[in-house]
Amino acid sequence: MSEKITIGPFNPELEESVYFKLVVDENRVVEEVELINGFIHRGMESLATKKNFMQNLILTERVCSLCSNNHPFTYSLAVEKIAGVEVPLRGEALRVIADEVKRVASDLFNLSMLTHLAHRHDLMKETLEIREYMQDLKETIWGNRMDMSVNILTGTKYNLNDEKVTFILKTLNEAEPRIKALQKAYQNDAVFKDKTVGVGILPYEDALEIGVTGPVARGSGVNNDVRVKAPYSLYALRPSLQPKVTTYEEGDVYARAMVRFGDIIEAIRIIRDVVADLPEGDTYLEKRPHIPAGEAVVRTEAPRGELIYYLKTDGSQKPVRMRWKVPTYSNWEALKVMIKGDKVDNVTMILNSIDPCISCTER
Amino acid sequence: MKIDEFNNAIKSKITGAYELKEDSDSYGNSNAWVILENKRDVEVVAKAIKAYKGRCVVATAYKNEKENTHTVVYHFDINGTIVNMQLVTDNQSVHSITPILKSADWAEREMREMYDIEVLGHPCSDRLFLDYSLVKGVLNEYISLSKMQTGLSDTDVLWSKINKGAES
What's the CA gap between A109 and A102, in Å, rounded? Predict the structure, then answer.
């Protein structure tokens, strides 16, 4: 028997479902920005309290695709803090390698979107071609181009051998000169600069007040990179791995793009440093941890900025409460500052410069 | 920032009793916990966070076993140090700190709609994620993210959409 199901009045379909209302003056300058969202709010925080600690590794990896590794990574840190677990050094190193590979792929994707919007399709194509190095790396090492299933409680489920290390280094050796050449191409491209320099400015004071993080903050001169300010994992255990953070004072779309290039180049340096001195030993602890009652607040630096997890446990097999916040959550409000007073023609470019992630934000 | 230093900044201004504790992870990162008895003291803590150029990262709420009370935890950052401020609601309300720390805006609005905790003095009464007041035809006024993202910079598509909205 057939049944008619009404979905709506909003039908999300294949769109990323956030809607904007712009009020503009006769010169096509934006006076007001309003947004409504919530269409893909999935109640994931509630769902997390219905799953056990192992199942939540699977759930958190599916919050988002571009920063999919950061969610189970940060979640694991929270559980491990409550359980008092010390992850084997090799596991810490492997976690950092995976995270930095994801960062390069994510940032290159955003840069390709910017050149697409600037109608510089040769640059966009080159950017996506270079990104394929990271996609191939992910597919070869972890067996998947997006969700890599790296993290388990107490460490990592993957390991590297000499052959894989050689493949990583070979890939980086091929990718790095092309990335540096690409950055120069962006810097020297008159069309790209025309559409990004002085566009969508987020002043330093606003960046501080709104509490933005990641490349959006660093593009406005605010450095709150968690890897430096509150280092975790191997960034804490080997301080030389902490990135030399790129910051710009201009706060425009161009600055945010250049910060991402800085992040990419540092990520490559970090991966090389880790594999050059990969600790021996286990990648995780054989004994499954007991998770007592407790609470933990932990953070990592995802490609778009700070990712924070709050976890409360009561000694049972499931969380009492789990809460997380992603960078886009703060960046939406910053978008209002960036767009207001700028031209309608620049709005798409400004929007993409924060690298928005809806599925992360709404959960 | 040292936790003691932060304590010195708030202790003379807080009106009710409070507990200050500290924990750290295996990497040496400190977390401070300020557990308030008087919920009006949130403003004192928020002002101290602002004075240190800190920000509200997010806030968490969860329901307590005792009926009609929630625990609310604000998570702040001061230059890499997390300061957690915890309190228990009694009559389902907290005093908003958004007028002091703009970065708390979304966190408080989300708390309000997810847990029905009244956030007294919050400057925005709009829903954040769960909007039951959507009217028919609202999509005619709003431009989808897809359209905003797909290369309309050099065309009049976006402008036409705005004009159309203005005329209707």
Answer: 11
Fill in the amino acid letter for A337: V
pLDDT in tens, A44-92: 888 888 888 989 999 998 888 778 888 999 999 999 999 999 999 999 9
A84 secondary structure, DSSP code: T
At position A24, the amino acid (one-letter code) is: V
Compare all CA atoms of chain A with the CA of B163 and give the residue at the minimum distance.
A24
| Cβ count near A333 (within 10 Å) | 18
Domains of chain A and CATH, by start: 19-148+156-362 (1.10.645.10)
**A252's tokens:** 């425009």
Q: What share of chain A is helix, strand, coil (3-state, %, to 5)?
A: 50, 15, 35
Residue bearing tokens 């490559």: A268
Pick from A17, A325, A352: which is nearest to B58 by CB? A325
Give the chain B residue nearest A77 (alpha carbons): B25
Q: Which CATH number fits domain B3-130: 3.30.460.80, 2.40.30.10, 3.40.50.1450, 3.90.79.10?
A: 3.30.460.80
Order across the sheet with B30-36: list the strands.
Answer: B18-24, B30-36, B81-88, B70-78, B55-63
DSSP code at position A301 = E
> Nearest CA to B56 among B120, B111, B102, B24?
B102
Q: How far apart are CA A44 and CA A63, in angstroms?
A: 8
With an 8 Å Cβ cutoff, are B102 and A210 in contact? yes
Q: Would an 8 Å CB–CB cutoff place B149 in contact with chain A?
A: yes
Closest CA to B97 of B68, B71, B58: B58
Would you call A37 an interface residue with chain B, using a CB distance cutoff of 8 Å? yes
Mean pLDDT of A193-221: 95
Question: In the sheet where A305-314 sits, what is the strand order?
Answer: A293-302, A305-314, A319-325
Cβ within 8 Å, pair B145-A323: no
ipTM here: 0.77
What residues in chain B have per-residue pLDDT under 70?
67, 131-168
CB count in 10 Å sphere of residue A165: 16
The domains of chain B are located at 3-130, 134-168
The identity of residue A137, as a single letter, is L
Amino acid at position B124, single letter: C
